[in-house]
Specification:
178 residues, Arp2/3 complex 21 kDa subunit ARPC3, two-stranded antiparallel sheet, 70% helix
Length: 178
């Protein structure tokens, strides 16, 4: 079957839509410390599941670029390149890897492999974010883990599971892009 001449446009629309959803997810937050709980993780994992590794990561990069050039779409309505170099900048950069890794589960026919890829994606954002937090705040590894990982594990597990459910729904409805 020959791809539609609009396939590239459809993919660009999906990338822009998911970048916008990531931005909305950043603005829905529960402040619990230097790194608040947001819905970003859900939309980032979902972007990987829906678009695959490369385009999922592109959606995250589009979100980061939009925030870096001044759109107030980072957590708390913040914007600018300075956010990327602050204590939470590692989480933003780690999100690119999260979407890429989660995207490896796009074509899995069962529910277990997308869950596994989503969890591995979480490990990426935790690792990059935790390291940046540790060095930006000049704190111990234990304290960085206590404030940058521990409060988020259960919520992120739920968000990844919800993204798997979202993937199943979109797949069942035939709404996934090619």
């Amino acid at each position: 079957m020959q791809p539609s001449p609009l396939t590239g446009l459809h993919r660009q629309v999906w990338i822009a839509l998911l970048a916008a959803l990531i931005a909305v997810g950043a603005l829905i937050q529960i402040p619990i410390g230097p790194v608040p709980v947001t819905l970003q993780t859900f939309f980032i994992v979902l972007a990987g599941f829906i678009l695959g590794p490369v385009s999922g990561a592109a959606a995250v990069l589009l979100y980061i670029l939009a925030g870096a050039i001044g759109l107030p779409i980072f957590v708390g309505g913040k914007a600018g390149f300075a956010i990327l170099f602050g204590p939470t900048g590692g989480y933003l950069l780690g999100f690119v890897g999260t979407a890429y890794i989660a995207g490896l589960g796009k074509h899995s026919k069962n529910n277990i492999m997308p869950l596994v890829w989503g969890l591995l994606g979480l490990a990426c954002v935790y690792l990059v974010g935790f390291l940046r937090l540790k060095f930006a705040l000049d704190i111990s590894f234990a304290k960085a883990a206590a404030i940058g990982i521990a409060p988020f594990i259960w919520g992120d597990l739920i968000k990844v599971a919800a993204a798997v459910i979202g993937l199943r729904f979109l797949r069942k409805q035939g709404l996934l892009p090619e």
